[in-house]
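Task: sequence design from structure.
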């Protein structure tokens, strides 16, 4: 309440001793639940009361899934070039530089080698903070190299998707990654190496249309947005109202697109049980 309103209502309590909480100690969910950040971290970034899954990136997923958060990252310093010299209101080269500086990442995906409950695995995880987690040449190449490593050492592969789709700034070069990743994942099947795909919020566009739905088992987090085009675009195209919960994990589960909806708090144990069964 402003000081002028307080005075008019004869509220004279001093606010000199009021203490503002430092930023970063609390998180407010979309429904208004206030959660202590430390409590949120301990619960795998899932709000305890309503089960809302906060968007996280590779750093957090690796800490959650790998035993003791320990892993070895491979193909670290691969960077996107500018194959078509893209420029809108900003040059593509400048976007990459800014994203690298902001996120401390080289591109929108990282690959780590470690253990899940003692089982050796390879995990690739996308980062939405890097140009919307878009799939460019580097994303495709890193997935290809990760599958080659899995084939060489007979290791299961886990791929966590979080993306706005193909990277428009690389035009057809980004679209080519759809075929490239599909071919590399098909090789895993040829060598009978398990591939688990984890779809998180959001997983859309060319990523969904290629490797995200090709897992031997497709897992989704609760309430995740999963679809090729956005609901608004689809509604305007077909001229009809969309079903309730359209393009959510739950909708896709009911229509046979995914095999399991797993809360993030149980993701590690569920992946482990599935891998043991497949191996």
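Answer:
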């Amino acid at each position: 309440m402003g000081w002028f309103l307080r005075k008019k209502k004869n509220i004279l309590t001093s606010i000199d001793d009021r203490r503002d909480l430092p930023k970063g100690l609390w998180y407010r969910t979309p429904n208004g639940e206030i959660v202590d950040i430390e409590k949120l971290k301990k619960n795998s970034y899932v709000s305890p009361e309503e089960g809302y899954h906060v968007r996280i990136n590779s750093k957090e997923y690796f800490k959650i899934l790998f035993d003791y958060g320990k892993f070895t990252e491979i193909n670290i310093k691969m960077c996107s070039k500018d194959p078509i010299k893209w420029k809108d209101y900003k040059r593509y080269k400048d976007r990459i530089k800014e994203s690298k500086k902001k996120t401390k990442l080289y591109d929108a995906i990282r690959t780590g080698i470690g253990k899940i409950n003692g089982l050796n695995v390879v995990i690739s995880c996308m980062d939405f903070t890097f140009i919307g987690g878009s799939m460019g040449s580097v994303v495709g190449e890193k997935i290809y190299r990760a599958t080659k490593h899995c084939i060489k050492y007979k290791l299961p592969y886990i791929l966590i998707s979080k993306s706005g789709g193909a990277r428009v700034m690389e035009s057809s070069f980004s679209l080519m990654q759809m075929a490239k990743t599909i071919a590399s994942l098909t090789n895993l099947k040829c060598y009978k190496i398990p591939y688990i795909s984890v779809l998180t919020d959001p997983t859309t566009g060319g990523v969904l249309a290629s490797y995200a739905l090709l897992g031997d088992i497709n897992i989704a987090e609760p309430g995740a947005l999963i679809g090729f085009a956005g609901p608004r675009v689809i509604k305007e195209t077909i001229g009809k109202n969309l079903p309730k919960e359209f393009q959510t994990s739950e909708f896709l589960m009911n229509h046979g697109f995914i095999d399991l909806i797993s809360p993030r708090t149980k993701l590690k144990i569920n992946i482990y049980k599935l891998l043991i069964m497949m191996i």
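The first helix runs from residue 3 to 8.
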